[in-house]
């Protein structure tokens, strides 16, 4: 009898979870569709970098884009860490024109979760003014725990973004001071504040995640954002025109989601496959007509740091070593 009761309870629990899950997916889908109608790729340059932006832009005014050697332009996701900075300087030394890209994840999440943040702010204010205590029932504890985790994650994103943004400014000044000749090739960093919504692609991405059932996937949503941004990035010609430029991502061997990333690639959810020199080939399904490169995917942090010591000017390497200690 106890066994039958337990089985029934389990079945009821699974049914309840399925209904709750379906309701959650429906809510998120409706919210996502609403965002799709309102959101496109939006970017900006910082004022202190715009001085150089005008210089570079003037080189291309009244020039047919097909007559320029666009294959010389490299788009690199640069967050100021040693891996992406190493690749950026290496490419500049090869006389490539570099367009750094930086996704402001805190800005994006804050905008998407605006309603929730406003609700939590009102809720917290009400608790303080009324001097009420948190509900002690299971539902109240669960709600409070998840709200606390959500706010903590938002706070961490904010701190990380502020740190990386400042680091990008400092490193740019240091690089241009060490290599004045790079001034014409290092384009202003493109700061990405919103990314075009693509319900079809995002659904495929997260459905594949469910299928793989990874033990660890925290942070993998950044990969989804990168690919979705590139798919709708108007600076890159698509299938209607010629393929231009390359995309560099500085994932290395110690990237915590490397194995999951490779599984997503093998399932064609990101790109077809990795071939020589760690190039992710053109993905017909997603409509991206550029090559995505991961040049240091087989190098660990220790190896990259060793190469950087031999490669970076002393001032830049000292900057990284100093920040590692703090």
Describe it:
This protein has 326 residues and is α/β, with parallel strands linked by helices. It folds into 2 domains: 38 residues; 286 residues, no CATH class. The protein is built from 11 helices and 8 strands. It has an 8-stranded mixed beta sheet with strand order 1-4-3-2-5-8-7-6. β2, α3 and β3 form a beta-alpha-beta unit.
Break the fold down into its secondary structure elements and pairings:
Layout: H1 2-38, E1 42-44, H2 47-58, E2 73-77, H3 82-93, E3 97-103, H4 105-112, H5 114-130, H6 138-178, E4 190-194, H7 199-212, H8 221-231, E5 246-248, H9 258-266, E6 274-275, E7 279-280, E8 291-293, H10 301-311, H11 314-325
Please tag this protein with its features:
8 strands, 11 helices, single chain, alpha/beta, disordered N terminus, 326 residues, 8-stranded mixed sheet
């Amino acid at each position: 009898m106890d066994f039958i009761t337990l089985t029934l309870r389990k079945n009821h629990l699974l049914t309840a979870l399925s209904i709750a899950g379906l309701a959650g997916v429906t809510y998120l889908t409706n919210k996502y569709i609403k965002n799709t109608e309102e959101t496109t790729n939006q970017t900006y340059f910082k004022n202190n970098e715009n001085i150089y932006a005008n210089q570079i832009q003037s080189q291309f005014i009244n020039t047919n884009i097909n007559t320029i050697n666009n294959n010389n332009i490299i788009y690199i996701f640069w967050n100021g860490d040693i891996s992406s900075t190493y690749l950026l300087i290496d490419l500049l030394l090869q006389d490539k024109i570099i367009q750094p890209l930086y996704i402001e994840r805190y800005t994006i999440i804050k905008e998407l979760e605006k309603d929730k943040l406003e609700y939590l702010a009102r809720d917290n204010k009400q608790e303080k003014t009324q001097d009420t205590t948190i509900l002690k029932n299971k539902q109240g504890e669960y709600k409070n725990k998840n709200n606390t985790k959500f706010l903590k994650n938002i706070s961490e994103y904010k701190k990380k973004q502020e740190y990386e943004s400042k680091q990008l400014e400092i490193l740019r000044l240091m690089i241009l001071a060490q290599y004045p000749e790079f001034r014409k090739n290092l384009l202003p960093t493109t700061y990405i504040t919103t990314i075009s919504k693509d319900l079809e692609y995002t659904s495929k991405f997260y459905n594949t995640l469910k299928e793989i059932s990874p033990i660890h996937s925290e942070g993998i949503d950044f990969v989804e954002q990168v690919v979705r941004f590139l798919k709708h990035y108007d600076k890159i010609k698509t299938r209607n025109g010629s393929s231009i430029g390359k995309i560099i991502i500085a994932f290395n061997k110690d990237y915590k989601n490397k194995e999951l990333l490779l599984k997503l690639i093998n399932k064609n959810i990101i790109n077809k496959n990795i071939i020589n020199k760690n190039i992710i080939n053109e993905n017909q399904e997603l409509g991206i007509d550029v090559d995505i490169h991961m040049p240091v995917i087989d190098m660990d942090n220790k190896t990259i740091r060793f190469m950087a010591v031999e490669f970076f000017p002393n001032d830049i390497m000292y900057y990284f070593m100093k920040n590692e200690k703090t």
